[in-house]
Design a protein that fits this description.
The protein is an alpha/beta fold. It has helices at residues 4-20, 26-41, 48-58, 60-63, 67-78, 82-88, 105-118, 127-141, 158-179, 194-209, 216-241, 248-258, 272-279, 306-317, 338-346; strands spanning 264-268, 287-289, 322-327, 347-355, 358-365. The model is unreliable at 152-156 (pLDDT under 50).
């Protein structure tokens, strides 16, 4: 999905660019179909619509001659979904816990730039990130550097830079705005905006190549390109050879070999159960969701204390002699570790195993 959505976003925006340039009605069809398919691949791809509206007006000198196609396109991408918007829109402003960390806008930008520059494992940080950000800023500023370029007829169109900035920033600002009420940000949701960043980096390299100052521009391009290739190559190699996804297959196999019918399986976080069930051979078994203990009041104090958590854990495990804890990304649900702490205090840990991003614990409840 996270490969498909960027491809569809690229196709949709390319279709819009060609349609605005008057290359035929079939490009409007491409734009509508690609955008609609992106909607059904990931819900946040709906932010493609405001991005496309912004680009349409940025390209206005050409776009005004294609206003009929633009209007039909907008109708196709909005009118069918108005019944959904009528009841979904008010929920945007409801304050609620989502399990996502409440990032600030600056932190969101930092996470995205680090991920797009040095990847998931971050080898080469911070220099790889600094080089790519500097090149992107240089590419953004290139329309104002025409007197310094050996061939000023090159990439110096401010409107195209503005289009890339809109593609890059509008979805992020929308997610940040919604997150003021209900945290929603995770970097993979905005992976389809990354091509705009890479285009700015490439424009930075192109402009630097045309920078005439005793040949230093081309030497700088060779140096920076070498740095980027090394950083990207090492991170790709590490990502291909090191496990980075939650290994529920191994965890489920481990539990299946030792599971006794009737044991309670506790999932912390609960979302892990869906992947666990895919690999676990038992169709029906007792299970429970781990407690969500991260709710806070307006002053920042936790709403659930240790006493309440203990009471609810006691109720949850009542009647069971053994409990399996399947733990993954637990801080999203229980950053103080109250669930595991209760089990450690009130049960005997008799088995444990650790896999990539998944920990398995087996407890025997002490009789009181």
């Amino acid at each position: 999905m996270y490969t498909l959505v960027p491809a569809l976003a690229l196709l949709a925006l390319y279709g819009l660019r060609c349609a605005v340039a008057g290359r035929g009605w079939h490009w409007w069809v491409v734009q509508v179909v690609a955008t609609s398919m992106a909607f059904y691949s990931h819900i946040l791809a709906a932010l493609l619509v405001p991005v496309q509206m912004s680009l349409y007006f940025i390209w206005w000198p050409q776009a005004r001659r294609q206003w009929i196609g633009g209007l039909i396109s907008l109708a196709c991408l909005t009118l069918p979904y108005l019944p959904l918007a009528s009841w979904q829109a008010p929920q945007v402003f409801q304050v609620r816990e989502t399990g996502f960390y409440p990032y600030t806008l600056g932190a969101m930008v930092e996470v995205l730039l680090n991920g797009w520059s040095t990847g998931l494992l971050g080898w080469g940080w911070p220099w790889g990130t600094l080089v790519m950000v500097a090149l992107a800023v240089w590419g953004l500023a290139s329309p104002f550097l025409r007197p310094l370029l050996a061939t000023p007829s090159g990439p110096a169109r401010a409107g195209e830079r503005l289009a890339l900035v809109c593609w890059l920033m509008l979805p992020l600002l929308a997610v940040w705005f919604i997150s003021l009420w209900q945290p929603l940000f995770t970097d993979r949701y905005l992976v389809w905006t990354a091509p705009a960043f890479y285009m700015l980096v490439s424009l930075g390299l192109t402009t630097l190549w045309r920078f005439h100052f005793k040949g230093w521009g081309r030497l700088a391009v060779i140096l920076f390109t070498g740095i980027l290739l090394v950083v990207s190559g090492v991170n790709l190699w590490q990502q291909a050879t090191m496990p980075i996804k939650s290994d529920f297959r191994a965890a489920a196999a481990y539990v299946a070999d030792r599971y006794v019918t009737g044991d309670l399986i506790l999932f912390q976080i609960p979302y892990g159960r869906y992947t666990f069930d895919y690999y676990f051979p038992e169709d029906e078994y007792p299970w429970a969701e781990g407690l969500y203990t991260n709710h806070r009041d307006p002053g920042g104090a936790y709403l659930m204390g240790e006493r309440e958590a203990a009471y609810r854990m006691q109720e949850m495990t009542a009647g069971y002699s053994e409990v399996w804890l399947i733990a993954t990304e637990t801080t999203m649900w229980d950053e103080r570790g109250l669930v595991k702490a209760w089990l450690e205090a009130n049960a005997e840990r008799v088995d444990e195993a650790h896999f990539a991003r998944v920990d398995v614990y087996r407890y025997v409840i002490r009789k009181t």
